[in-house]
Amino acid sequence: MNTNSLGLVLQADKVAEILQKSYRHCILVADARFISAFCFLILMLFADGCKRKPAPAPPSEVQIITLAATNVLIFEEWIGTLDGYVNAQIRAQVPGYLLTQNYAEGSEVKAGDVLFQIDPRPFQAELNQTLAKLAMDKAQAGKTGLDVKRFTPLAKEQAISQEQLDNAVQANLAADAQVKADEAAVENAQLNLGFTKIKSPIDGLAGIALAQIGDLLSPSSGLLTTVSRLNPIKVNFQIGEQSYLNFWRHHTAGSGAETNLELQLIFSDGSTYAEKGRFLFADRQVNPTTGTLQIVGLFSNANFLLRPGQYGRVRAQTLTITNALLVPQRAVTELQGTYQVAVVGETNQVHLQPVKVGEQVGANWIIESGLKAGERIVVEGAQKVKEGAVVNPKPFESATIQTNQPWVQTNSVTQSNQSK
């Protein structure tokens, strides 16, 4: 290697060394600037924190109610079927052609009103015939009676034989018996003639005629119409054995008379019949197949609004719970089969209180244990409070717990009256 080449190599090494030192210096300067800026930011934040502390969060606002003792009336509902107090099935009692229909279908009729007329001529002829035979047999009985009177003294004087007198006496007895038979035949003919006028046996509402004029009727020809006494009207419904026991205990422990049981009738559109019904009677036995007992109630029906075959829901009080505590369901929290409510103390501090719930009353629970009257419980906002938290209680803004109004549940109804 010549001298010039060696010189060039030495100069290149010096240049590289100078560049490397410059690079290191630039990196150190940049790092120093970054570290200074970061430390300055930390110092500023620390200084600001020393001057001001964060304000504590305000207490959570919740809505509460104050518990009050309530008398709760337990009601139950059953599906009922209306039926006439008396249902008279109108049928023909004698054969014949139907001549007239003497009533307006669906109208009110009185006992004794003629509903249908069967052709009476054959029965009138039969009556005339029996009357004629009765007259003949009465004449014959008169003759035999005279024979007995005439033969009696002759037999005593032995003018005639005793046998002749005995024959006359027996002939007279037979004639009298025939007269009685004829009188019975006349009575039967009169009845048959009367049966041609088919009358209503009761006061009530007459149904649709099931026979037409000109039909040949007979006792086996079937139903002609039905007359029902609708005021009062019966309602039939089936109740379970447990409901029957509740009802019986409640009313025997109260008035002692089950006939004082008040019934309500609810129509299919949800409206309630204005008149209150009453208990009439219970069947003699529980149905062993269904485990239910048939109950019959009675409702006044002066305007005939209720009709046989109509369905409705029958509601009756079966139990009374006194001094019960009602809590809205939204205030009760369920966790793994246990229930608890948030109770607000005098210092507005929350305590999560375990409770035992009973009957469901509409949108409320009956609390059997764990709470007492006068305590304040959280209804709105219970999910955001914790044990020991301080809250800002406000009165519950929604409608208060309803009283004096029934709530329908699955096959049962409950109603509560606020105690005074």
Characterise this structure.
The protein is of the alpha+beta class and 420 residues long. It folds into 4 domains: 1-43; 63-74 and 321-418, conserved putative lor/sdh protein from methanococcus maripaludis s2 fold (Beta Barrel); 77-83 and 228-318, Beta Barrel (Elongation Factor Tu (Ef-tu), domain 3); 89-224, OB fold (Dihydrolipoamide Acetyltransferase, E2P) (Beta Barrel). Helices cover 31% and strands 37% of the residues. It has a 6-stranded antiparallel β-barrel with strand order 2-9-12-11-10-13. The longest helix is centred in the first third of the chain and has 49 residues, at 3-51. Mean pLDDT is 82; it is low at 25-30 and 402-414.
List the helices and strands and how they pair.
Layout: H1 3-51, E1 60-66, E2 69-91, E3 96-101, E4 108-109, E5 114-118, H2 121-156, H3 162-195, E6 197-199, E7 204-206, E8 216-217, E9 223-240, H4 241-253, E10 262-266, E11 277-282, E12 292-299, E13 311-328, E14 333-335, E15 338-344, E16 350-361, E17 364-369, E18 376-380, E19 391-395, E20 407-409, E21 412-418
Parallel strand pairs: 1-19
Antiparallel strand pairs: 1-18, 2-9, 2-13, 2-21, 3-5, 3-8, 4-7, 5-6, 7-9, 9-12, 10-11, 10-13, 11-12, 13-17, 14-15, 15-16, 15-18, 16-17, 20-21
